[in-house]
Amino acid sequence: MSSNPNIAIVVLDTARAQDALFTTPTVMPTLRELGEDGTTYENAYASAPWTLPSHASLFTGTYPSKNGAHGDNTHLPSHNRTLAEAFASSGYETIAVSNNTWITEDFGFDAGFETFWKGWQYYQSETDLGVIAHELGTMQKLRTAANHIFEGNPLINAANLCYSELIQSRTDDGAQRTTDRIESWLAESDDDRPFFLFANYIEPHIEYRPPKEHTEPFLPGDETYEEALEVRQEPCAYNVGNYELCDREFDLLRALYRGEMAYVDEHLDRIKTALEAEDEWEDTILVVLGDHGENLGDHGFLGHQYNIYDTLLHVPLVINGGAFNDGPSQNDQLVQIPDIVPSLLDETASDDAAIRNQSQGVSFHPESTEQREQAIAEYISPQPPVKTLEESFEDIAEYVSRYDRTLRAIRTNEYKLVVGSDGTEKLYHVATDPGERNDQSAKKPERTEQLKNELDGWLDSFEHADADTETEISGATKERLADLGYM
User: Which domains does the chain have, with CATH numbers?
Assistant: First the structure.
């Protein structure tokens, strides 16, 4: 393999490790095969439980407090050096395709990319008509279309509208168009430079509506696909006690969720096949990961907000190619998403000093002698804010005010401590209680204090970022984020 291999990072948005890697029947056979040839990191953890701060960590090798991208500042500040900028300065072609509204130029994530596609648009446009696909009823769709069609180029807008309403499947959230783009770009490219490719597939994210054939293997008992689609999927409403779901309904949601991942797994296979067809596979490092997980009734939550249990932090991470194919296929060392930056730099000749010095990650490259002793996670502020919940729902339970706090966690392979800005402290012996059911803080005050001091020391070890950009979110973007459960 070249000292400047291609780098391809594929994010499976909202994929949690327990479903992607550890289920029977296998949900993602392609991912498993990639890990068998390469390396599956069985103890990989996100630095935050939702999309924007987790992607910021992936792009910069830093935690939310340092990079400044989190619920209080939904924009990646420009002082951060990104992987795309680092590889671009080393002579790489840089391409991105994102299906998550947070990961776009609107929020600072296009830095360093020569090409940046929004996966939900057939033709790239500043006018976002993707929200129309989620409107209910023909008249509402027509009204929304009329409000946006003449913003920018009407012809491009009309083409994008026809694609989303007449061509794109209701069971596809952009995966088909994304993979088509990647295949076409690989087939048509005459660029001699190595490439850095980033792709975000949003299929595992609510709303779950995978193809029927991908869902049926995971349906419980005699339940049907149609019955599964009837289950209400509104995380904010569920999390404030606006409605309830029974065990059967959560079983159906889990089937849909796994169906989404089974569907996107086929697109992983297509990417691998396309790389092979263009003689790029043997010279490509492919990184596949989840940016965060999901609660499907776990700990009383739906979605991925208001807590930092491991259901939200434990993510799949598989790397195939180069030195990652030389050792054991399963690796149980503790790793985190920020560690991907130094690990990829160690694999290439693109040792960008700016991002190397900025990174808080610990390299897990097979030849690295470093090893992470503890993992950190931050949930700096709730998203959507508690005030928004109070304005959106009447008579919500009093406990909702408890969501309005900062949470941080520090974990080793044995213990995990979660500390809240409201004074709460919870200690879990994750070695024997991986479900984080039993708080041990009162029984083990010395271990609690020890981990709390280590967390405080970590927080004091670097300068915390201030926001440097005011983010104005357009109406269409707000609607797309609302569809994803963020507003």
Answer: 6-120+173-373 (3.40.720.10)
